[in-house]
Amino acid sequence: MAAHKPVEWVQAVISRFEEQLPIKVVHQNTHTKVSTEHNKECLINISKYKFSLVISGLTNILKNVNNTRIFGEASEKNLYLSQLIILDTLEKCLAGQLKDCRRLDETMLVKQLLPEICHFIYTFREGQQHAAELRVSASAVLFSLSCNNFNAVFSHKILCLVVCETHDTAYIIVICSHLLMETIQSYLDFGLINLAAPNQTVRPCLQAFWNWVENYPDEFTMLYQRPQADMAEAAEKLFDLVDSFAESAKRKAAVWPLQIILLVLCPEITHTISKDTVEDSKANKKLFLENLRKALGGGNKQLTESAAVACVKLCKASTYINWEDHSTIFLLVQSIVIDLKALLFNTAKPFWRGTGSQNADVELMMDCFVSCFRINPHNNQQFKVCLASSSPSTFHFVLVNSLHRIITNSHLDWWPKIDTVYCYSGELRFMFADTLTKVQGLATHPPIRMTPIPPFCPFKEHA
């Protein structure tokens, strides 16, 4: 049958694969699991020769499963397991796609498969059971799909950003450059600037930027050595689009962190708006920076919190730029850093964005601490505040974790080393001892033995 009727044989394997899915077989046992895995491997091998037929069949199965109505916790679990199996099979089939795949295949992939994958991307909800795992699996399918069909996936910009969140490969560089240099107007065409939920645009954009900068700092540094007009133009267009959307205080607060990063991608514009007078097309950028500085000083709570986040991102981004390459960005940092540290490291009124924000607030303080150290290691204002015995325990936690980050993550030549704070080893040891005493006073575990540390060598650089 396989030799004389290959299409019917492939369809039979696809049907068998569908019949063995958990959503179809209520009572799973070892035999059904082994059979499902066997069918899966068969389809992956067959896809090397009958690619379109296998992908089309898997897409139809996924569509049917996604549309299945379920009742009860057991059915929900079976649905989730079935979707994971299908997505994993699709990923492996796409990974084996031949480079000279016909144009018809790409059309079929875009029209049939992408909408089903979007089901897991656009309907994602934080905290929803299984949603995060399904989203990661769906993004893996997109990654494999984009390797041979990049244009098809890139036409859906938000999908590229989702892949960037879960893949630390050179793919990120391709996405960033394409995203910022080509057809940014599609943010409106595809409705990606969602008035009801702007974080759907802001969060993945920022994630893509930081994945790029942190994994490929040399590429970002090169941007300030040889500015790229195309990237700056694209970033400015997106800035203007977002700025026109940010009318109310709530909307401004939602997009300020993105806007500051877009300005960072425009070295020549940041230099231009540092002057007293600017042309009309750049006036909104200058006004944005003025509003940012003003919000740091207080007023509207939402704007103050957003300004803090945006300014920390500015400080962090500036540490990836050699000060010899672009002094204007550091002048901008210096104009906000004092107010920023006063806001984040205020022991009388600790920075707090509300219930459930503690981890994010601590992470923000750590980013600020590390960035300020890398910008000017001899300005120890925040260090002394965090080290003080009267400071909240959260400040001590921020200090210790920031020092650990400075020691273990120092791969850029101009980042200062930890030896700058060796002189505070005595105070640090006292802080640890005081914290230990407090913890042992609350807990019921045996006393912890402290190992003496030579006074002349409080820290050691990690290899």
Mean pLDDT: 78
Rg, alpha carbons: 27 Å
Treating each run of at least 4 consecutive H or I residues as one helix, how many helices? 22
| Percent in helix | 55-70%
Q: What percent strand?
A: under 5%
Shape: globular
3D architecture notes:
With 463 residues, this protein is mainly α. The chain is 68% helix and 0% strand. It is built from 22 helices and no strands. Residues 166-192 and 455-463 have low confidence and may be disordered. This is Neurofibromin.
Can you give keywords for this protein?
single chain; 463 residues; mainly alpha; 22 helices
List the helices and strands and how they pair.
Elements: H1 6-19, H2 30-46, H3 51-66, H4 73-95, H5 103-122, H6 131-148, H7 150-154, H8 157-166, H9 171-181, H10 186-189, H11 199-215, H12 217-225, H13 229-245, H14 249-264, H15 267-272, H16 280-296, H17 301-318, H18 327-344, H19 358-375, H20 381-387, H21 393-408, H22 425-442
Summarize the structure.
This is Neurofibromin. The protein has helices spanning 6-19, 30-46, 51-66, 73-95, 103-122, 131-148, 150-154, 157-166, 171-181, 186-189, 199-215, 217-225, 229-245, 249-264, 267-272, 280-296, 301-318, 327-344, 358-375, 381-387, 393-408, 425-442.
